[in-house]
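batch_manifest entry 22 of 60
target: Major facilitator superfamily (MFS) profile domain-containing protein
source organism: Capronia epimyces CBS 606.96
requested by: lab member K.T.
priority: normal
notes from requester: please return tokens only, no post-processing; we will run our own comparison against the previous entry in this batch. if the run fails, retry once and flag.
--- input ---
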Amino acid sequence: MSVHDPDRDHTSPDKDMAASKPAPEHDERLSTSEFEEDVDIDTANPAFVKRVKRKVDLRICVVLGVLYTVSLVDRVNLPVSTVLYPKQNAAVAGMSTDLKLKGNAYSLLVLVFFPFYISFQPPMTAIARKVRPRRFLSFIVTAWGLVMVGHGLVQSWRAMLALRVLLGILEAGFFSSCAYVLSSWYIRSEVAKRNAAFYLLGSLIAGFGGILAYGLSKMDGVGGHAGWRWIFIMEGIITIFMGLLSYFMIVDFPEDAHKSWKFLKEDEIKVVVDRINRDRRDVHAPPFKLVPYLKNGLDWKIWLYAANFGLTSVVTYATAYFLPIVLRQGLGFSEAAAQCLTAPCYAFASILGFAESMISDRIGLRTPFLLFNCVIEVIGIVVLGYAKASGVRYFGAFLIIGGAQSNIPFSLTYQANNIRGVWRRAFCSATIVGAGGIGGIIGSLTFRSQDAPDYRPGLYTCITAACVVFLSVCITTADFFVQNKKQKQGRTVIEGLEGFRYTY
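--- output ---
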């Protein structure tokens, strides 16, 4: 199967495929000559390449997508518990009553997660690279499962506050490491649909988390525990099980694939490594050095990549935390209906995002889809906020979630396509997900109970976030166009590699 790579269409084959040498400061070439045969692997044996990619998809996209589902469900079950058991509902022994949540206690429980989630991003990604993903990810998933069980057993909100801190530290290593691993296994023209499969599979299943939580809440009184406690306990047990199982399922980086339970044979590893090396020459990691690692932060584009992800996360977190509340208080749906009606929105987002990613990989463009999704986000926010009929406002929720959820994997792809280097990729994965944590803080604060039923400040915040992403993508895309033109004329070398071109 011939894979269309737009970044090589306009460059000389001699430059792009032959003995291209990166600049010394970015020299991350293969350390052996094992993979230096000048053969186009895709066209030499397309059936074999397709079979290898299918094996990689199952063990990378599917496994990480399932674990991401667990992460999302665990992350939003705190607000779900509060929606199911609001403060005044003492008859069902709700969380707010049992833990004596007064004043700003609930806001603290939500917000304390994010500072630790953000600040631990850079070291966690470097640790994942050092100890290998299989060990690292299975450990943190199992550990935060234990923490979630603890959420259901605590007797005071202060004890839960400590557990929320620990949860932030553990989850800090998850999403950025997953994004890093995924981008390490594929060439640039294939990564959009893989990012979409990983992220949107998790989001789709997690979209039914409210229904799961509602069902678990019906265990109220079993074993002497309130229903809200069973939400944490049972979902924590599921997380522990998935964490232990993931040790046998997760695979490491391509050059270490032979260590991952005989995942790939030697000739299959050769295909993966050779394709990546020909695409961007950053398979093997040079020794880690702190100063060069941190110097990546001097590139202004990296912070716009992070802004794209972080501001999109403002919208995704806001809808995850508050859409059930808006549906219940603003649109008048029952508690059960408010939880269940979020699921179709996420199903629509998964279909939209994956369809866009398939087309994006086929035509080799990312920017049009990022911009289109920003536009439908804004339309959805306006419809939800200003329409009169409940059904029409609910349709606005589809557009908001569809656009924002689809732009998360596109933000990852846009960044991953336009950087190279093992440690540079690790740094960027940390910054982009750290920005997502900042977006989570903003999203957690944007819909306030005193703003019901219109929630105007929250709507204005989400509109602003989508518009800034639109502007940011336009700025970086304009720069890519100029730099690619200079590269074509031989006036610059992009990312330290002859023949490398930006993807927009």
